[in-house]
Specification:
alpha/beta; Aspartate Aminotransferase, domain 1; eight-stranded mixed β-sheet; globular
Length: about 375
């Protein structure tokens, strides 16, 4: 049987063929496609928002940190339960990541642990330069609690919305819940350009700096002059042209992923030892990029994962917390064991917007067999 993937690329065949046709007509290699893609992103977020399209979400975090003046020896607070790309750019700059645990409602940064971390770092003589909070698996973070703390200590928020394009909190779109928002258009994301990312912000000053640094920091002269180190982080026009077409499918793809999520909810509703990641209240609107469950034990999680693997169905444990990663084991961590427990017992299930009915039936059959 063909393999069922966790989140395989979903590219509208019509959009793909339109792009191929454009190669002989409007030239998808034109830089104008980048500007058009950025305009389409801005249209989704509304007036007063600036979008800069880049080659990855990792690049976006790197430039966001630079735009906030993060440098050698500075400290940046980061959610521990996340993909390593949320953290690596901190280390690129010679800064120090300070990891914070999750809370059980959204699996995102715990406000209590966050404030504890800030207070302790201040006692040690270090006010963090930024907070990186993640919208894990498409679920918005606890906006009011985190924002209140960030404002109290005047620390800017970088919102890593790489997994949450189209999600929102109280109808305010993820990416705008922080001071700088991060997007990803990687191959497994809800909208893909084959590879790409972006920065969104309401600050023209930040947007200008991000664009300047992303294009090799070239000064505005008739010749090539560079006074600071820049980067080759711009999205390529071909990827942007695909993005221009694919972004029109955002709402459709979200609806399909939400249907997948409901499909799993319907199955697990009477299995009380299994908990799914769901919106804690009506304030939260998740794109359900990935549907994830927490099982009764590590042993049960592994047994289910291996049963799926035997059936050629891809599943994955939740992200391994950053404070448990060998490369980051010496960095500060604040919190309990919530992220560790989620990692030990959590499993991501196939969630692609292109899952077919027959594929869902195969998944359901394996679940029924396992929980009979």
């Amino acid at each position: 049987m063909d393999r069922i993937y966790l989140s395989s690329p979903h590219i509208d065949p019509l959009a793909y063929h339109q792009q191929v046709l454009m190669i002989g007509e409007d030239n998808p290699l034109s830089v104008e496609n980048i500007f058009l893609f950025e305009k389409k992103i801005q249209d989704i977020y509304g007036l007063g928002v600036y979008a800069t399209a880049l080659n990855s979400g990792t690049s976006a975090i790197h430039l966001a940190l630079l735009a906030l003046g993060v440098g050698v020896g500075d400290e940046v607070i980061c959610q521990s339960l996340t993909f390593i790309a949320s953290v690596n750019p901190i280390v690129y700059l010679g800064a120090i990541p300070v990891f914070v645990d999750s809370e059980l409602d959204t699996w995102n940064m715990c406000p209590i642990a966050l404030e504890k971390a800030i207070k302790d770092r201040m006692i040690k003589g270090k006010l963090p330069k930024a907070i990186i909070v993640v919208d894990l698996y498409g679920m918005p973070f606890k906006y009011y609690e985190i924002r209140k703390i960030a404002n109290k200590y005047a620390i800017p928020i970088i919102e890593d919305s790489a997994e949450a394009f189209g999600s929102s909190y109280e109808k305010k779109k993820c990416g705008l819940l922080g001071d700088i928002g991060i997007l990803s258009f990687n191959i497994n994301k809800i909208i893909t350009t084959g590879g790409g990312g972006g920065v969104i912000t309401k600050s023209k000053k930040i947007a200008n700096k991000v664009l300047f640094l992303a294009t090799q920091a070239r000064e505005n002269t008739i010749y090539y002059q560079h006074e600071v180190i820049g980067y080759n982080y711009r999205i390529n026009p071909l990827a942007a042209s695909l993005g221009c077409l694919e972004i029109n499918n955002l709402n459709k793809y979200i609806e399909l992923r939400k249907r997948n999520h409901q499909y799993y909810l319907d199955f697990f509703k009477d299995i009380f030892t299994v908990k799914m990641l769901v919106e804690p209240s009506e304030c939260f609107y998740s794109n359900h990029w990935l549907s994830a469950v927490v099982l009764e034990s590590y042993e049960q999680r592994e047994a289910l994962r291996l049963a799926f693997e035997k059936a050629n169905i891809e599943t994955r444990p939740l992200w391994k917390p950053m404070h448990l990663q060998p490369i980051f084991k010496s960095y500060p961590y604040y919190g309990a064991r919530i992220s560790e427990d989620l990692f030990e017992r959590g499993l991501c299930l196939p969630s692609g917007s292109n899952l077919t009915e027959s594929e869902k039936e195969r998944i359901l059959s394996e679940l029924q067999l396992f929980f009979r």
